Automatic annotation (TrEMBL):
Keyword Nucleotide-binding: no
PANTHER family associated with the record: METHYLTRANSFERASE, S-ADENOSYL-L-METHIONINE-DEPENDENT METHYLTRANSFERASE
Record-linked InterPro entries: SAM-dependent_MTases_sf
Protein name: S-adenosyl-L-methionine-dependent methyltransferase
Keyword NADP: no
Feature: compositional bias, Low complexity: 98-112
Positions of the UniProt region annotated as Disordered: 1-112
Organism: Coniochaeta hoffmannii
Length: 404
């Protein structure tokens, strides 16, 4: 149960109080949001929009630019009900000047060059996918997906506030499993110059030019780990669609950490939450349920994050901390921070929608591609509908391997 209620627009709001201390940049940004919000033109594409780029702060833009310039079940645990058992701090913004339009965007195409077999990506429905262990992971690895991953990184940084919530400072050896475009690993290496950071992934989609203390390898994190040395900090983010056996991953982390080393998982709880009943009966809710059903058939549990804490404890970790963050699905929530996060997350979902749905609906649920595209028209409408007060819960769970 949620303790949230929709505000009526007249009462005091703690986010409004916080807004009084905004910087000029924030105020400018708010103006752009409102301008965006009142635009009638809404165009959908598979790449981040120019509009969303224009409202990002410089640090967000440089993160995304870094990628553009390179050549992106069932609930069986007591804590599964947990997502709604915390105060999200989200309130409905029912002022009339904020819509969720996001501007014009073109659909970029993949231009990855094939230089060796792992770069010789698999193509389907106009998207490309990893070649190493082809078929294991269902999301694409082409330029639009890489741009989406970097946008998702900017969202995570705004939501969590920093790269790592675990108390780490220049840990000697760092591993980022399923590193994607490597954006987290690169930034961690920059912020922790005494660390040696390794990022691994099924896809070799990381940039060539990286900090001297950062490198990447193609590797399947669900295989037996064969690293020569142990690590002092292991990080994993947004791997919910990737791993089918989380306890196995936790055991690999435990076995490959030095005593006293930290592990951290930053993860979506895929089932949408809503502060009221506005999600009920929508195409968006149906889409979310179908995604959970399809991923469940592939043995990916979209609700797995709610079990991380207990599973890390069972694996032997100590000092385990679980934190939950509410991420609005579009610009429905009151407050500049929430509105910005909502706009960014809406773009993120719109950008990932086709890639995720086509694979899952055609291959796993047996739909034909036309029926999927038709259904997605309604899903896109709902995604932009500020009268649907939905949000994601993002978990951050970290723990330490005992020193003895
Ligand atoms: C949603 S992306 C997250 C990327 C990155 N962690 C981030 O937060 O930006 C998931 C990534 O996991 C990779 N992946 C999927 N299954 C994997 C596996 N078994 N081992 C290693 N990487 C995997 C995918 O290729 C993709 O790059």
């Amino acid at each position: 149960m949620s303790d949230l209620t929709a505000e009526d627009g007249s009462g005091p709001d703690r986010q409004e109080q916080g807004a009084r201390t905004q910087t000029n940049a924030d105020a400018d940004q708010a103006g752009v949001i409102n301008k965006l919000a009142t635009s009638d033109a809404v165009h959908i594409s598979d790449g981040p929009s120019e509009a969303i780029h224009s409202i990002l702060q410089p640090e967000d833009r440089s993160r995304i630019q870094a990628s553009v310039t390179r050549s992106e079940q069932g609930a069986d645990d007591a804590s599964v009900g947990a997502p709604s058992l915390f105060s999200t701090g989200l309130n409905v913004d029912d002022s009339s000047d904020a819509d969720s339009s996001i501007g014009d965007i073109d659909r970029p195409s993949s231009s990855v060059s094939a230089t060796s077999s792992v770069f010789d990506f698999v193509e389907e429905h106009g998207r490309t996918f990893h070649r190493y262990k082809a078929g294991k992971y269902f999301l694409p690895n082409d330029i639009p997906e890489r741009e989406r991953l970097d946008l998702q990184h900017a969202i995570a940084m705004r939501l969590l506030g920093k790269l790592a919530l675990a108390p780490v400072d220049n840990p000697p050896r760092v591993l980022d499993i399923g590193t994607g475009t490597g954006i987290w690993a690169i930034e961690f290496a920059n912020e922790n110059p005494a660390s040696d950071v390794l990022g691994t992934d099924l896809s070799p989609i990381q940039p060539e030019y990286v900090p001297a203390n950062c490198r990447f390898e193609v590797d399947d994190a669900e295989d037996v780990w064969v690293f020569n040395d142990k690590f002092d900090y292991i990080h994993s983010r947004f791997m919910i669609a990737a791993f089918s056996d989380w306890p196995k991953v936790f055991r690999s982390c435990y076995d490959n950490l030095n005593p006293g080393g930290w592990v951290e998982f930053q993860e979506y709880y895929v089932e949408f939450q809503c502060i009221d009943d506005t999600l009920s009966g929508t195409a968006l809710e149906r889409w979310n349920n179908l995604i959970l059903e399809a991923t469940g058939k592939l043995r990916r549990n979209g609700r797995a994050a709610a079990k991380f804490r207990s599973q890390l404890l069972a694996a032997g970790f100590v000092d385990v901390v679980e934190r939950k963050f509410a991420l609005p699905g579009n610009a429905w929530a009151k407050g500049e921070r929430e509105k910005m996060l909502g706009l960014m997350q809406m773009t993120n979902i719109l950008d990932g929608l086709q890639g995720m749905s086509l694979q899952l609906f055609t291959r796993v649920l047996g739909w034909n591609a036309e029926a999927v595209e038709l259904f997605l028209v309604d899903v896109r409408k709902d995604l932009r509908n500020r009268d649907i007060h939905f949000y994601y819960v993002v978990y951050d769970v970290f723990g330490r391997k005992p020193t003895t």
